[in-house]
Amino acid sequence: MSNQSEHIFVEIENKEKEHEVKYESVIKGDCPKSTRKYFAISPEGDFLVEFKEIELDSPDSLKFELKMYNIKNSKNEDGLALEKDSKPENGSKRENEPNWGDEQELSYRKFSRIHTDTKLPFAKAQIDLIKNVPKPILRWSVAVSDKSTNLSKFRLLAISCISAKDMECCKEHYKKISPKEIQNIQNNGHTFVFIINNDYSINNIEDKELQIKYGGIVKLFYENDPTNADNHFLILLTLSGILKYHIKNQSTYSIQKLKYPKRIYNSIISTVINWLDITGDFESITNYIYTYILLCINKHYFLVDGIKEDIKYIELYDLKTNQLVNTFQRQILFKSVLVDYPSCYTISNNGKLLAYLSFPIKGIIIYSIECGLEVAELANILDTDIFKTISDSDKIFLYFYQNDEKLLIYFSESDPSSAVWAVWDIFSSLRVSVKLNQQKFILEFPSIGVSETGLGYVEKSNSCIVVYQKNDDYDKLLIYDDLVVDKYFNLKESDKQDWITRDLEDNTQEFKIDKLHEPWLFKEDDAQHSFYLDKKKEKLLIIVKHTVQIWYRGTLKFIHSPSPFFDVPNLSELEIWYPKKIEVIGIEYCSEKFKFSIQIKDAEGVKQIKMDYEDDIMHVAKYACNTLKFLQTFSYKQKNIHVLGKLKSGFDDFIEQTRKIILKLIRLYPTEWRLLDIRFDLMSTLVKAGEYELVYYVLSFGNPIHIPQYLPWSDKENMTSTTISTAFSEDNTMLACFLEYYSNNAIHNIGWMNTVVDIIPELFKSNDENENYEFYAQKLFYSSCFCDKEFDLFSFEILEVSPKSNDLLKVYIPITQLIPQKSEMVLQKIDYDKIVNIRMVPLMDFTTNKKMPDIKKGKLTNFIEILLSPSRYLSPGEMDYSPFIKLIQTGERDILYENPSMGAVINWMWYSSKLYWPKTLYIFALYFLTYSIISWAYIAHIQITVVELKQFYYKKKQYYLDLFNLVDLLSLFTAISISSYILIRYYTFENGFKNAESSQIFTFIIFLSILILWYEFILLLRIFEDFAQNLNMLYNIVIALRQFLLFFILVIIAVGHSLFILLGYSFYIGLTINKKSDNPFSNIIDAILAVYNWSSISFDNWNFWPLTIISVIGGFIFVIILQNVIISFMGEAFSNVVEDSKRGLYRYQIDLIREFALLENSLEFSDLDYKFKDKIRAKYICFYDDSNITKSWKEKSEQIRSMPYPKVQTLSKSEYETLSTQEDIYSLFLMMSLMMSLMMSKKHLVIQKL
After folding, report:
1. What residue spans carry the region label Disordered (predicted)?
2. Is beta strand 251-258 parallel, antiparallel or unpaired with respect to 242-248?
3. Kind and range of the H or E element at 83?
4. Whole-angstrom Cα Rg for the chain
5. What are the C-alpha distances in Å from 431 to residues 344, 365, 384, 669?
6. What distance in Å separates the CA atoms of residue 845 and residue 883, rounded to the nearest whole number?
7. Starting from the edge strand earliest in sequence, which strands make up the sheet with 217-222, in order?
8. Alpha-carbon gap, residue 244 to 802, rounded angstroms
9. Rounded distance between C-alpha atoms, residue 997 and residue 1156, angstroms
10. CA separation for the pair 819, 1173 (Å, rounded)
11. 7 CB-near residues (< 8 Å, 6+ apart)
12. Is the pLDDT score of 353 beyond 90?
């Protein structure tokens, strides 16, 4: 520790208020070598903080300055993007309007310096802490939050000091360093948290927990609800791990210390050993580790990516939730490198897409974050070695712009002047048109190795990026936003033709009308506007009443119908509905291009329609799909209204022409279609339009061109359902197609079942409405993906759950969340000898609730509470339960018992909840003991009383339909009634029960109640697996023998009744016996009991020879025949119930799992969570494929999969016209439609035979 005297100053630059508000897009200034600057931009990109460190006379004497900037978006003043040819009315340049020819003008946003009278942010105690940090200080890290939503409108500011001496503790044994030693590295830094008030004054936070004695990379995020910015997460990424502070209303709510994922430690250790063997420089290796960690961060996400291990996927974590978001398949290089940096990546601002730089393909891969599937790639765009990895000198940058629809790709291995870059218009331009080149204006980005070291700096927000560049004597601060993209595409246009403005009063028809262009109107249609777009007069633009069309040589090339403006009604109102007319506001066009604005009368808003480029397929595909949906309403009307054959033929031909547009785009541009489907949910549109052929064509395409999407593209878009849920509500045929499509692909990647998870409970819930859904669910649960999906999560530690029964599957839970550093849970590495037999449940997050409440109570508190008060049931609207709980709440159980994946799910859910139920057993034992000795302890039985009443209230009719619940009630009220009666009637404080009166009847009643309580106690012991199976076997044996037992009892009653008639009054017929009391047939009850105990009867007492014969025959029947028969029946029944014991065990466990999920206790930390020190979420569930257990299921699975779906509408063959050259894309589709028709015909024949 340094003991020298330092001089440290912290200043907020204070200038007089005479400074006018000045907006700048680039800030330049002097920056000597002794100065280092650090910046932080708010997540929303509207505020910037600059923290400056200045060395004075010696490196140990420091001075600090703090500046703040507002970031203003000039584009928002007009609400419109500034066009190249936009001119103000007075002819002068607009204020803040960018100069398209100025290379420095690359942002609509401008910096506005804030001049304040703020006092020093560092208090004296904080300055003393900075003095004690071991020198040299490696770097600083700064973070600033968004403005809060409460009246104070404050921001949080965090400044962290990082020492270069942290790694020196490993100097002596660095070659043997382990992840655990890295986690225990002493951190010598400090982090300070401040409040920036609405007047820009700065205060210290008084919370002592936020006086953080650690230094690292600091980040500030609000919680997942962006409307509540008062609750923040402060994330501190240190050498040893991640510190997470949950801040509510400016005070600490909770603190977590988390480990990095195992692959991060492995990469760090490998690089440390290699680096130190060569250089021995601990300061540089410390700087490398922090640079490595910094490259892993993007917004609130943390990427795990390394090339040292043979792992073919990357991992993405959410630092807000500590959870793994998804894994993404990638190629590996198999190359040994000294420095292992993660590859460059970026996350779209809406959290939907991940763009990843892949050197093996020399390009970019885009993944869907929701399902982890690759959606597009740009290969061979980088001019570099295929075996290259990221190095310190590389300048690489990726960023999403303009509603995440465009991606900036920047790459340079040397100086900025040789950098190549481009903007990929993801949902418009064809991928082949994207090339990395040197552009007409230069973008500047720092090298990766100098990030945040004072020489270069990049800060990202959700709306823009700030770049800091430092040269020898000066530096500059730049901001890049959507203007970069606008300028790129503006300068990229090669066609400089002038746009022609169409006179709206010019109704000249440039073609002869020879057919109806809107045949659904059932009358001759008058085009509002029609003209050719080219000199050859081949491309005709027609604007009719309801649509905009482009025809090329008699073939429809483009069609648009503004269906959202038409407010299409329900089917019952269609007959009286008629859409409004399009009103054109303005038209501009040139060769191959057009754009115009339209409005619907009585509808709010103006819609602009345009097609800018030859390869602009986005508008073509989206508009064609929406038009089919619009035309579907008229197709329905035609079925209910008599339509002339000619009109119907024209209408059908028009629909076919529209379908051809879509089919052509799918066939020629399948990847672009996949992207458009993600962006605009085109498959849902086709489902609503009833387009069976198109849906089937997409799903049966060679490479998958439709992937499941759960969330809408943006919060502004009103997407209330997924594609499969739309099919569920619209049509059985399409539902069957999607279920087959997703489940077949899930054998390769379980991300395909992303949206199927939530539809599973609905299949069973709606079974009463549609009998087909039961078979759909059966087909789904017997898909091969439920037992054949191979395990591929090699990098995660495993929680192994070994069942006590041999007929249950062993379960493996990959721990995919960030593990707390103080976790006491014993986790194993995956056994590579067993990997070949480990399978994955193809349903992600199947057992996790949608909401993650944060309820923590101590173990002692939990046990005392269960004694003193009953467990509270959650109200139905209080929790969004997991899909598994929703499934078992539907009452469907049988389909779960044999399915291997569902067996693994049940085993895990029981393992995670069974620790709650012994507490209930202990309470009942206490209650039983209390009743037995009739003491003063009322707490236990009161608690159980209220629980049973709550169960009855919650379950209502279902409660008393369960036999075991009736036993619960009987044992409860019988014991309480008797004990209350005895205490009130006979107990006195002076003599106790000494003077109590006893009676035979009341004592017998107590005897029965004790038996009932013992029976209830035995039933409660079913929480132990072995006991539950044995009890279930006994129960099933009785059920299996019930008919024979009934026969046996009737025989006994018959013989007993007959002997009673014969010998009940034997003295009247001359048959005497020594004593009347010795006659076992003196009454009918004794006679029946005597027959049951046949071997104890002595018929010699009557000296009547027929009775001797009856004795022999009865002994032969009862002792030899019937008893041996029942033994043989029991043996057969035993062999059957052994096979069915698993089903009975699952049945009971599912009931308890559901019961536990409905309790508030399920939200609290369980014993398992306390060992882990966090709430465990099982994103993936795996199991060991024991052939002895899964063999029968696999055999039945093959039979079920071969069965066709019942009552599926036949997909008709479309009679498409044959197109020439590239447009002949339908032959494959026709063949598929024919095959589908044949398959459906065979299916109908089978159904008829059945």
Report:
1. 79-102
2. antiparallel
3. none
4. 39
5. 20, 12, 19, 10
6. 8
7. 217-222, 231-237, 242-248, 251-258
8. 33
9. 45
10. 8
11. 56, 61, 62, 63
12. yes
**Of the listed ranges 231-245, 268-282, 799-813, 860-874, the one predicted with least confidence:** 860-874
Distance between CA 210 and CA 248 in Å, rounded? 12
Cis (ω within 30 of 0) for the bond into 136? yes
Q: How far is CA 1227 from the centre of its chain?
A: 39
Determine the Cα–Cα distance for residues 65 and 426; give it in Å rounded to an integer.
42
| pLDDT, tens only, 284-310 | 888 888 888 999 999 999 999 977 777
Q: What is the pTM of this model?
A: 0.82
**Helices 939-955, 963-986: inter-axial angle, 10-degree rounding:** 140
Strand partners, 534: none
Residue 261 neighbours by CB distance under 10 Å: 23
- State the SS3 of 947-987: HHHHHHHHHCHHHHCCHHHHHHHHHHHHHHHHHHHHHHHHC
Q: Is the pLDDT of residue 1228 over 50?
A: no
Closest CA to 319 of 185, 217, 210: 217
Q: Tell me which H or E stretch contains 261.
A: none
Which contiguous run of DSSP H or E holds residue 1053? helix 1042-1063
What six digits make up the tokens of 992? Answer: 């106790």
- Rounded to whole angstroms, what are the CA distances from 1185 to 356, 840, 1189, 1191? 35, 10, 8, 9
DSSP class of 98? -
What are the CA-CA distances from residue 1034 to residues 26, 948, 1125, 1146, 1241 (Å)? 83, 27, 18, 16, 50
Please give the structure tokens belonging to residue 80: 């419109």
Q: Within a 13 Å sphere around the CA of 396, how many CA atoms are in the beta-carbon half?
A: 26
* Tokens standing for residue 981: 């009666």
The DSSP bridge partners found for residue 38 are 51
The angle, 0 to 180 degrees and rounded to 10, between the axes of the packed helices 1025-1040 and 1042-1063 is: 60
How many CB atoms lie under 10 A from the CB of residue 565? 18
Q: 940-949: string of b/e by CB count within 10 Å (b at 16+)?
A: bbbbbbebbe
What tens digit of pLDDT does each residue of 1060-1081 get? 888 877 777 767 766 555 778 8
Q: How far apart are the C-alpha atoms of 1024 and 99, rounded to whole Å?
A: 76
What pLDDT band is residue 96 in, cutting at 50, 70 and 90?
very low
Name the H helices within 915-956.
917-933, 939-955
Per-residue pLDDT tens digits for 1035-1062: 777 777 777 778 888 888 888 888 888 8
